[in-house]
Amino acid sequence: MATTAFTGTPAHTVGELPVVGQKAPGFETVNNDLGTVTSADFQGKRVVLNIFPSVDTGVCAASVRQFNQRAAGLENTTVVTVSQDLPFALGRFCGAEGIDNVITTSAFRSSFGEDYGVRLTDSPLAGVLARAVVVVDVDGTVLHSQLVPEISTEPDYDAALAVLA
Questions:
Q1: Are the C-beta atoms of residues 146 and 158 closer than 8 Å to each other?
Q2: Where are the domains positioned within the chain?
Q3: Where is the active site (predicted)?
Q4: Would you please indicate which residues are annotated as catalytic (active-site) residues?
């Protein structure tokens, strides 16, 4: 179990994020068309997993916008967002915001939260995903891993993207 915070109050997760140097767990999520997205879909690519509670919050939306803008020009890199949002909400958000450089996915019917150790077990947000970023290399090795210490703050974009420079 890892600890983050929600508005200053400790919030715990089901486990720990994958650590730098280890292989990232495989995953299966759902895209905006209700199709399956798996880690195998990105084989041979670098992947930034932008994990958050809900795109309908200001900080989560900001992280999608930031990664959409900042990672767009990175060679052989795909940004995949993962939340518990329904795919319809993710599609609506991206359409309204003109987001086209990230792949938004939902973990609403998968074990992603458990596999990556990010499902919150307590706090008012129990059941959704904590805010985290995991960067995976072309061979599936974790290059960067951050569980954001306070869910209501943005991740360290510079640190996440620095490993891809």
A1: no
A2: 2-163
A3: 60 (cysteine sulfenic acid (-soh) intermediate)
A4: 60
Neighbours of 25 (CB within 10 A): 17
Strands 36-38 and 77-83: unpaired
> What class does CATH assign to 2-163?
alpha beta
pLDDT mean by block of 10 residues, the chain; 165 residues: 94 97 97 94 95 78 78 87 88 71 91 97 95 96 97 92 90
Report the alpha-carbon distance of residue 152 to residue 9 in Å, rounded.
11
- Predicted confidence (pLDDT) per residue in 90-132, tens digit: 777 766 776 777 889 999 999 999 999 999 999 999 999 999 9
Instruction: State whether the Cα torsion 123-104-50-16 is positive or negative.
Output: positive
Query: How far is the C-alpha of 70 from the C-alpha of 165, rounded, in Å?
Result: 12
Place of tokens 């670098």: 46
Provide φ and ψ at 60, rounded to 5°: -65, -45
Distance from C-alpha of 118 to C-alpha of 163, rounded to nearest angstrom: 22
Q: Any idea how long the chain is?
A: 165
Can you point out the beta strands (E) in the chain? 3-6, 9-12, 28-30, 36-38, 46-51, 77-83, 102-106, 132-136, 142-147
